[in-house]
Amino acid sequence: MISNCPSCGSDLVKKEGEVVWRCPNTECFKRKIGWFKHFVSREAFNIEGIGPKALEKFIEEGLVSIPSDLFELKEGDILPLERFAQKSAQKIIENIQKRKNIPFSRFIYSLGIRNVGQKTSHNLAKRFKTIEEIKNTSKEELESIGDIGPVVSESIVEWFSKKENEFFLNELKNNGVRYFSEEQKSNKLSGKKFVITGTMKELSRELAKEKIVSLGGEVYSAVSKNVDYLVVGENPGSKYNKAIELGIKIINEDDFLKMIK
């Protein structure tokens, strides 16, 4: 069995109750890449256009050290790098900035707390309103939640006890990252049915869907006579013509943003 990290050479460690041996070196390049990949993944911040190669380049060039640094990147930081044209650099920055507001469960999952998967993140988001509440919760209270047992509660408490993680959370906040509750905030859109087409500028389509649901609305994938609104971004597809045929109200992204405020 391998006893040292193939990347940095550190002695691998295994915690009691776990089966996986891990590298304890927070500066390990491969470990850091894994952290960033998790952070930008579809299930976490869902930042499109940033693959492993781009992340490796950003870290190697010293542009980022922890995932919160991504929100400080400027187009001019990326342009000098090999293989990054102006259009791709601009798109990456736009995609990052669009993800500054995410559901609380995604925010929790993005932190990369050991043993805390999507299901546990959702359960935590249902019980608590803020990250500070989770931080100040005892192991006993954590273990009263759904699928959380001693191993998971220990991971959560340990994660929040580390100074570097406190710094990470503060940096996310300082860089404008915010999370919102996934509970239905109001009945503002109750009974209203939406379809979204095209590329959104301010919000990703996924986040737009989550906003609609949080306000009591419903989101459908296809246009039909039962749909109330078609939200149109850039380069809309055939759904646009279908909505015109059926007389469905068509609104642009600006109108939609006003609607969900």
Give a nutshell description of this structure.
The chain is α/β, with parallel strands linked by helices. It is built from 13 helices and six strands.
Low-confidence stretches: none
Rg computed from alpha carbons, rounded to a whole number of angstroms: 21 Å
CATH class of the largest domain: Mainly Alpha
CATH architecture of the largest domain: Orthogonal Bundle
Q: Record the strand order, biggest sheet.
A: 4-3-5-6
The string of secondary-structure elements, in order, is HHHHEHHHHHHEEHEEHEH
Structural class: alpha/beta
Mean pLDDT: 89
Q: Give the distance, in angstroms, between the N- and C-terminal Cα atoms.
A: 56 Å
The gross shape turns out to be globular
What does this protein structure show overall?
Helix 1 (29-40) packs across helix 2 (52-60) and helix 5 crosses helix 6. The mean pLDDT is 89. With 261 residues, this protein is of the alpha/beta class. A four-stranded parallel β-sheet has the order 4-3-5-6, sandwiched between helices. Strands 1-2 form a two-stranded parallel sheet. The longest helix has 13 residues, at 86-98. It is built from 13 helices and six strands. It folds into three domains: 29-99, Orthogonal Bundle (DNA polymerase, domain 1), CATH 1.10.150.20; 102-180, 5' to 3' exonuclease, C-terminal subdomain (DNA polymerase, domain 1); 193-259, Rossmann fold. It has helices spanning 29-40, 52-60, 75-78, 86-98, 104-110, 118-127, 131-135, 139-142, 150-161, 163-174, 205-214, 238-246, 253-259; strands spanning 101-103, 178-180, 193-197, 218-220, 229-232, 249-252. Strand 5 (229-232), helix 12 and strand 6 (249-252) form a beta-alpha-beta unit.
